[in-house]
TrEMBL record:
This is GTPase-associated protein 1-related protein. The lineage of its organism: Bacteria, Bacillati, Actinomycetota, Actinomycetes, Kitasatosporales. Residues 275-792 form the GTPase-associated protein 1-like C-terminal domain. It comes from Streptomyces laculatispora. Residues 3-135 form the GTPase-associated protein 1 N-terminal domain. Residues 159-255 form the GTPase-associated protein 1 middle domain.
Length: 817
């Protein structure tokens, strides 16, 4: 059955103007099969029209005519049918006027070319007409196409063309793949000097693309206006490519400089290498292998087995595909693939390629002979040692049981021992773990080096701050494979855990180390238990310490360092409160705290206590008594200030309080505000007490110490003093006497005393009843001369701002008395 044909021509003499070089050539349908619908003809006209290259004269010679481009097109129409056509330039014999003739066949929707022929194949038919026949022949150009189109000479010509377009091959194929996989409107534009070369490009692509994609691929080998062309592949000359821009065009100028850089498409790169190797028959072999359309694995495997060198991405694709389908290749091709992947002299292998090779080894191990898998195993361990690739999936130990394993061990063993003996080993966790594992695989004895390696490796494990360290799986495999390494490493971690319990806790939270054996490992057990304990105890941190200690299985009296680990786990960098510190001190002897070093946490609790924590001085006293040799320097001076505050509050302090506190302060500098608040506050409180010694008050007033006097001022402004002033006339009288008794003590005292009289005493006296004021006046008189009572009356009558005159008057009366 022949396909419906049509002819569209302007070749008849007298059909249009014979001049105006760039004018459009008028045309008409000169012959149309009745089976072609009228709607198809409406769309066909613009697709079949021809416009010669710019500057082409209307009058052309035979040689010039042969040099003009032809347009071979395969287009889809709106009703789903297709139009396969050839449009060629022709000229009239009388005037040599340039015209064109288009010959096309129409494929109804849902039909294909005879025998599954690809549209580009029909380009080679000899039955395309250059003029309208007297009658449409019974056989169309496609159906009449013979098997001669596959001649060897034509195949060689296509190979030559592929080699000549090698730099552009991968890019064009990658764009065609994207075009086939996406529904977005896009066109691949090929800029060539001859339309026949565009046809060759399409033939190259048809041999590579999956059949279902090749059948749907529309194209035109030549057009003057590529932005109007609806086909997928559009061929243009150089002078018509300048107008192309935008994301809808993928332009490949094959007449210009070679493109730079590789194409990130393993399928396209592999297909390009196959074409450049002149072996397109490999595409048929690859199509017989399982895989999705455009999968790089089948073509990459086929190319490698044929001896074609590929890049790292393509080799990784081949190894990954074979690892997923180890049954897809016979023994011969499997060995060919392994030999290609492990070929010596390849220096561009990537991590992804080694990962794929590791998966391939795992898939072939036990399925293929050891002679096949041994090169893969050797390559993997060589990369692990020499390439520094910590993520390589190592083969099993049985892979090196044969003679080749001995060869690899002889090559890599000295390198492994040299690196493991270096001082830097252990700092890079992944590298050290990898070397130890490879040493075991190859039977390299590194027992003498193990203590040093583990001693450096253990701190590095604690120092790694990653939430999910990449070396964790390899470390667990190492500890599972090598009992001696596990024992030594767990012991080292347990020994350093007291110095960094938080780090050990983080490590165990990220990596489930296997320490459930017979080793005691008290510190690691505590670190493993700590998160749950702290969550369960909440704010009861002392309770958490006791529970964590129980997890150790050892008493702090027998092993004091567990106390350090427990305190570090619960408080980390923080200090306990004073109450918590006193409980901790009672929970263990001072000897245990001394050995564990936790006494420093207790000292920090005392020094950081707020000034209103009444237990801080008691804790300071206990610490000075319990750790007399350990607490030195400024910490000792600060604790002595706290202890002095305790003595003041208990009434056991020796005289000369102000001098004593001022003498202790320099040894505590820089002193914490809370410590100073305790000492100065205790002194001020004792001086403001009803029985405050007059001599100590005198010493304070005349000390000139701004901080001491300020502490006294703060205490005097406190609620206890205010309440006592309104409740005890004798106390109010005493305060009046003190705050007016030392007018020559210095600026600090004078200013403070004046403020206390006006801000503290006056409001209290004004709040009293008349009888209350009289009682205070009477108490003032009993405590001093009649002049002092008169001074009080005078002060009580006066407003603010008279303290200077009052002080001078009182001073004169005191001198006269």
């Amino acid at each position: 059955m022949s396909l419906a044909q049509l002819h569209y021509t302007s070749a008849t003499y007298g059909d249009g103007p014979e001049s105006s070089e760039d004018a459009a050539i008028p045309a008409r349908f000169s012959a149309v099969d009745a089976a072609i619908p009228a709607s198809a003809l409406t769309e066909a006209g613009p697709l079949l029209a021809y416009e010669p290259p710019a500057g082409t004269p209307r009058q052309v010679t035979d040689n010039a005519l042969r040099a003009l481009p032809e347009s071979f097109s395969f287009s889809v129409l709106s009703d789903g049918s297709h139009l396969l056509s050839r449009t060629v330039p022709v000229r009239t014999a009388q005037l040599s006027s340039l015209r064109f003739h288009a010959h096309a066949v129409h494929l109804p929707a849902g039909t294909q070319l005879p025998g599954g022929m690809l549209p580009i194949t029909a380009c080679r038919s000899a039955r395309w007409a250059a003029a309208t026949p007297d009658r449409i022949p019974a056989v169309d150009p496609v159906t009449a196409l013979t098997a001669a189109v596959g001649r060897t000479g034509e195949r060689e010509g296509l190979n030559d063309f592929a080699v000549s377009r090698g730099p552009w091959l991968a890019g064009v194929l990658a764009d065609l793949r994207r075009l086939s996989e996406t529904a977005e409107p896009s066109r691949v534009v090929l800029v060539e000097r001859q339309s026949a070369d565009v046809a060759r490009w399409i033939a190259l692509a048809a041999a590579v693309l999956p059949p279902e994609c090749s059948e749907r691929l529309t194209f035109t080998t030549y057009t003057r206006h590529p932005h109007r062309a609806p086909q997928h592949i559009v061929g243009v000359l150089s002078q018509d490519a300048h107008e192309l821009s935008g994301s809808g065009f993928r332009v490949h100028t094959c007449t210009g400089p070679r493109p730079e850089g590789a194409v990130d498409d393993a399928w396209a790169e592999t297909a390009a290498r196959i074409w450049r190797s002149r072996t397109p028959e490999l595409f048929r072999e690859a199509a017989e292998l399982p895989g999705e359309p455009f999968a790089a694995g089948p073509v990459a495997v086929t190319a490698l087995c044929a001896g074609i060198a590929l890049g790292p991405n393509e080799r990784a694709a081949a190894a990954g595909w074979a690892a997923e389908r180890p049954y897809a290749l016979d023994a011969k091709r499997t060995r060919q693939l392994v030999d290609a992947l492990t070929a010596p002299g390849v220096d561009d292998r990537t991590g992804a390629e080694f990962d794929a090779a590791g998966r391939l080894f795992a898939a072939l191990d036990g399925r293929s002979p050891a002679t096949t898998t041994a090169p893969l195993a050797a390559m993997l361990v060589t990369e692990a040692v020499r390439g520094g690739n910590g993520s390589v999936e190592l083969p099993g130990r049985t892979a090196f049981s044969g003679s080749q394993g001995a060869v690899v061990a002889a090559q890599l063993g000295p390198e492994i021992l040299t690196e493991l003996s270096g001082t830097g080993t252990g700092l890079d966790v992944a590298r050290t773990v990898q070397l130890l594992r490879v040493a075991r695989l190859l039977g390299v004895d590194c027992a003498e080096l193990l203590p040093g390696v583990v001693r450096r490796l253990a701190p590095a494990l604690l120092a790694d701050a990653q939430d999910a360290p990449g070396w964790a799986p390899a470390l667990l495999e190492l500890m599972d494979e090598q009992f001696d390494v596990r024992t030594a490493l767990l012991g080292a971690l347990d020994r350093i855990a007291p110095e960094n319990p938080a780090g050990a806790e983080r490590l165990l939270g990220r990596v489930a180390l296997p320490f459930t054996g017979t080793q005691l490992l008290p510190h690691l057990r505590m670190c493993a238990e700590a998160p749950e304990v702290k969550a369960g105890c909440g704010a009861d941190r002392v309770g958490a310490v006791h529970r964590v200690l129980r997890a150790a299985g050892m008493s702090p009296f027998a092993e004091p360092l567990v106390l350090r680990t427990a305190v570090g786990l619960v408080w980390e960098e923080d200090a306990p409160t004073v109450a918590e510190a006193r409980l901790l001190l009672d929970a263990a002897t001072s000897d245990a705290h001394r050995t564990a070093g936790t006494w420093s946490h207790l000292v920090a609790a005392a020094l950081n206590a707020p000034a209103d924590d009444e237990e801080a001085p008691e804790l300071a006293h206990d610490l000075l008594r319990g750790f007399p040799q350990e607490i030195v320097g400024r910490s000792r001076g600060a604790l002595l200030l706290l202890e002095f505050a305790r003595e003041l509050r208990s009434g056991s302090a020796e005289p000369d309080w102000a001098e004593r506190v001022r003498a202790l302060r320099p040894g505590a500098e820089p002193v914490e505000p809370g410590v100073l608040g305790h000492a100065f506050g205790a002194l001020a409180g004792r001086l403001l007490a009803p029985d405050g010694p007059e001599a100590e008050l005198y010493a304070l007033a005349h000390s000139g110490d701004a901080d001491l006097i300020a502490a006294y001022d703060r205490a005097a402004h406190g609620p206890d003093v205010r309440a006592r002033l309104t409740a005890e006339p004798g106390y109010a009288a005493g305060c009046f006497a003190v705050w007016t008794a030392h007018p020559h003590a210095g600026t600090e005292w004078s200013r403070t005393a004046a403020a206390l009289l006006e801000e503290v005493l006056r409001p209290a006296v004004r709040a009293l009843s008349a009888d209350g004021v009289a009682a205070v006046e009477e108490a003032v008189g009993r405590s001093g001369s009649s002049g002092r009572a008169e001074a009080f009356r005078d002060w009580n009558r006066r407003s603010q701002g008279t303290l200077g005159r009052l002080g001078r008057r009182l001073a004169g009366r005191v001198r006269r008395g």
